[in-house]
Amino acid sequence: MSEAAADLAAVRAALARLPGLDPAINAAFVRGDTGRYLGFLLQFLADGERVVGESRAALAAGDATLAGRGLHALRGMAGLVGAVEVEYRARELEGRLRAGLGVDGTAVGLVEVALHLANLAEAVRPLAPAAPAGGRPGPVEDPEAALAAFAALLATGDVRALALARDLGGVLEARLGA
After folding, report:
1. For a pLDDT cut of 70, what percent of the chain falls above it?
2. What is the pTM of this model?
3. In this structure, what DSSP letter does residue 134 have?
4. Which helix (H) or strand (E) holds 148?
């Protein structure tokens, strides 16, 4: 097994041990590509933290409808990446708002979701490949894997694709025949 494959196996194992996360849910979508799954998960964490903040602000402003829309979006995003605990809590909180059970319990629940997302992010972010020191691109050891990562970032609209495009300039030129 190559070092890269061993690293991915270690990441897969670490993700599988995280409470409230079921990476198998997303496995078919990413065709077993752990790196791609990790990218989706990191994007979910960033988006999820933003959506929770917006939903909390909406509740504070008395807009339960907007908060409910945020929870609905959060539930869908969580379901896609297998963040089962966040999905469950978002569904529960969305239901409270729809049933008119008040915003106080929902606001407390959103704090709990925010804490869960923060804990998950703290556990997941160190698993992502580190950027080269000094922000300078390192040598591209596996051009095909780098191009696949670039394609995954593009497919999800991830702005990190811009930095990777700069880093892969020569690889991209060679692939495109430029």
Report:
1. 78
2. 0.68
3. G
4. helix 143-155
